[in-house]
Every structure is written in C-alpha cells, then in structure tokens.
Amino acid sequence: MAVIHGADAPTFTVPHVTAIGLAAPSRGASETCVWRFTMDAGTPADNVHMVDREEIFVVLSGGLTATLEGEEHQLTAGDALIVPPHTPFAVGNPHDEPAELVAVLPVGGQAIMQGMEPFVPPWAR
Fold first, then answer.
1. What pLDDT was estimated at residue 69?
2. Are 115 and 65 in contact (CB under 8 A)?
3. Nearest C-alpha neighbor of 124 from the set 49, 8, 31
4. For the whole model, what pTM was predicted?
5. For residue range 30-43, what is the model confidence (pLDDT) as tens digits?
6. Please, what sign has the CA dihedral across residues 13, 52, 26, 81?
7. Alpha-carbon span 62 to 78, nearest angstrom
C-alpha cells in the first residue's frame, strides 16, 4: 500500500492548468492514475484532444465547460464527465474563479493530440 500526501505529490504546470499527480506507476499505482487539476479562470475550451482509454473527470469546485464530440456541456461541483476512448473532447473554465477537479485514467492511457504521437501525460507516469 502506498500513501500519497497531496503536499508531497509532484506538481506539473501547463498553460492554464496545474496538475498534482496523486496516483501513477511512479507513485505505486499499477492499474489506475489519479490527479487533481486546478484550471485557471477564463481558460478557453480549445484544447481538443482524445485519450485511448476511458477518462473520468469529477468537478470538486467551480465550473467547467466540456465539449464532447462537438456538444457543449456545463459542469459544476459534484458533476462527472465520462470521456469514452478515442472521442474528441475539450475542457475549459469560462468562469471568474478557478475550477478544481479530479481526473482518473487507467495506467498506460495515452493522450492523442493532432500532429503529435500519442503520449502518456507526465502526471500519469
């Protein structure tokens, strides 16, 4: 059994998003990756991409706009978004406050972005 304290978990930053890697192979997980995201206020939902495995997002605070297969969805605290494999999606935060969410992806799941080879995000390694 591994215990990952949030204060000790690695932090990764990409434009508009901070990810805290909670569970991943490098931290003892063998089947499931979990990370916590903070998405900046005013983040556009223009990061359309796919994953090769099912990914689940749970909104903890704030609100998000998710585009899934071209359809827009509004999410607030307590809501979950289930993204099927190989389904184009994007997540943004059009609100005036940051949004907090948790994401879950099976170990080995890869992101697929236009013009790039599939890759495992750094917080899921």
1. 87
2. no
3. 31
4. 0.94
5. 999 999 999 999 99
6. positive
7. 10
